[in-house]
Amino acid sequence: MGKRWAVGALLALSLLWVASASPLADARGRTTESEGARLAEIPAEAVVEEAAESGNEAGESLAIVEIAETPGSLAQLRAMDPGEVPAEGRDAACWALYRGLLPPGETGRFDSEEPASRAEAVQALYRLSGILIPVDACPYADVPEAAQDAVAWAESVGVSGGVSEGRFAPFSPVTRSQLAAMLHRFSAWRGEDVESRTAVSWEEPVPAYAEEALNWVMDRGLYGGMTDHGLYPDLPVSRLQLAEILARLQKDRDPLAGELSLPESGADSLSRQKHEALSESIAAAARRHGAVGVQVAVIEAGALTDAYHYGWAVKGSVPMTNAHKLRTASLSKVAVGLSAALLWEEGAVDYDADIGAYWGVKTRKPVTIRSMLTHTSTLVNSESIAWDYTGVKAQLSSASGYGGGVPGDLGSWSYNNHAFGILGQTLELAAGKYLDDVLEERVLGPLGAEGSFAAGELEAPELVTPLYRGSALGRSAASVRSVRRWGAPGATGRQFAGGFTASARDCGKLTALLAGDGCFEGVRLMDAASVELMESHGDQALPGGTYQALPMRLRFGIYGRERLYYHTGSAYGVYNLLSYDPDTGDGVVVLTMGADGGKDAYDIYAVCGEISQAVYEAIA
After folding, report:
1. Exposure pattern of 96-127 as b/e (b: 16+ CB <10 Å)?
2. Interval 288-314: pLDDT, tens
3. Can you list the pairs that 66-72 forms with residues at least 24 positions away whose Cβ atoms lie under 8 Å?
4. Cα–chain center distance at 244
5. What is the pTM (predicted TM-score) of this model?
6. Residue bearing the bigger pLDDT, 551 or 265
7. Bridge partners of 107?
8. Which of 394, 479, 550, 559 is deepest in the core (most CB within 10 A)?
């Protein structure tokens, strides 16, 4: 299944529903290009008045919709059944459906978590404009017929342009930055005050085109409840969030919108409330285990809420910050597993097909993506085996490339770094692109996160830290940064078992996505079924009492939680832990370097376990 926001045909039908839902749709005339240009120069109020009095050149009445005067009551609205919508968002969803601003989603219900498209956002503003004036031609060839009038209107009045020459990208999700710009321009066109009296400062970089608009949006409170944990300027806006934003925009123009119950700020973060005490606990654990540097990210109820840092990024000279990038070691396997789930969702890979089809070879034993994710492939695991494309093809087709056991059988379980290298290559070959690009397009970009299997490709490579083994240098920053993008997707598998480089905050965003069953800050970025696939496991426990998922482990009764999914990582003096509680959506990511590497009762690095225990107790 492809990205949910890329289902063009379904969205076109939805947009057609909006057009046909108008009681005046049948009376629509056509305007000339000159009329479209003239419209851009006339204030909204003047256009409404002139159109109502004179009609168009063909002698037909122009379609005028005064949303605020449409009959309706709060009781009628609340009697609607929008489907599965959070209680606090029900009013806004019903209002948007009732006013015809948003059509039913793919399921015939509201689909509140799904990203709203650029076309849907423009169509809603077109309806709110109160002026349905069709035009003869849309300047963008990629816009479906049902949305052409709205897009042409938005272009003509300056509400929204395209993303490139001749391209509007109607089915792409509308981001928070893009929507802010549309709302700002729309309100200016309506003659409203669009001056921002508050300058908002954010950690995330904001696109230059959207700075003024985002300040105005925040000043007006239009994004209420959406930015409690960060602005996330490139994050898509969900359909429910769009409905709530439009209701706030209309509260002074539509009496019904003014009566709605709309969510404001969410629950405060327990980690933030206890930040000072937790900082002391983290520092104490770091000192106890001799760590040179530590980063920690905290996830509460599926949201990244807090971050901590301790010690040095470069020992004795550069203090650690939340922005520094560390080698995540075997937490990289979670990034590979996430890539696999995203490609499975798009229909690019089959977890149970022999990978020989992706390599163009006949494997000597059946090897699947599932068996590599669960460490049951029986592929030989050795640093002496080649990681390059030619060498891996030879291994797959040779009897000497395999050990004993039955592939896919848990009795053949053996932790396998080399198989994960082959898995990463297989995914790149199937996708025809680098895994960095898979992650960037689907999750890292929207989340405002940055991580890479090739540390030298990071936007700020100067933030990459050296690695310390005890107090000594384990690997220099220059060595970590020396890894650059390989010649072609699938050319090497060397970095997939442990080379992903990112901050704890970056990893925390990915963890929050999994802890939220594919939703992040109210918007769905991946299917819940894809997360369920990653979390799936058999009934048979491994030695030590854990259950093998794809590729995380599941353990019951750990760190004060009923169960946690987790993955550890170690290399060159790095000791790391990523974990989350699937029942509460809480989670913790701990990245360390230079610590002693001792383990706790759960066979997890003690420095990571002690920090995780303190955080989980604090946010319970």
Report:
1. bbbbbbbbbbeeeebbbbbbbbbbbbbbbbbb
2. 999 999 999 999 999 999 999 999 999
3. 66/130, 67/99, 67/127, 67/128, 67/130, 67/250, 67/253, 67/254, 68/250, 68/253, 68/254, 68/255, 70/99, 72/98, 72/256
4. 20
5. 0.89
6. 551
7. none
8. 559
